[in-house]
Amino acid sequence: MRVFKVSELTRRQFINVLDGRRLGPIKDVHVDEKGMITAVVLRGGKKLLGIFPWGKDVVIPWSQVKKIGVDAVLVEAEEV
């Protein structure tokens, strides 16, 4: 198991391997009592007028993360 900083995830694109879509930038992470990541929260949609959030955030369980690469994180998310 590779150890990395959460800040490293913020520099990567999250891509759904099922349809090739970019899912958005990371907004937050959920961790358990042992400090292990259980889910990532991706910022949903774009901003209206560049100010107001538009769309719901997307929560991806860590079990759906398939590969962490240099530039991207590949996830297998059926309902996004």
UniProtKB/TrEMBL annotation:
Organism from which the protein derives: Ammonifex degensii (strain DSM 10501 / KC4)
InterPro entries hit by this protein: PRC-brl_dom (IPR027275), PRC_barrel-like_sf (IPR011033), Spore_YlmC/YmxH (IPR014238)
Lineage of the species this protein comes from: Bacteria, Bacillati, Bacillota, Clostridia, Thermoanaerobacterales
Domain PRC-barrel: 2-77
Name of the protein described by the UniProt record: Sporulation protein, YlmC/YmxH family
Coiled-coil intervals: none
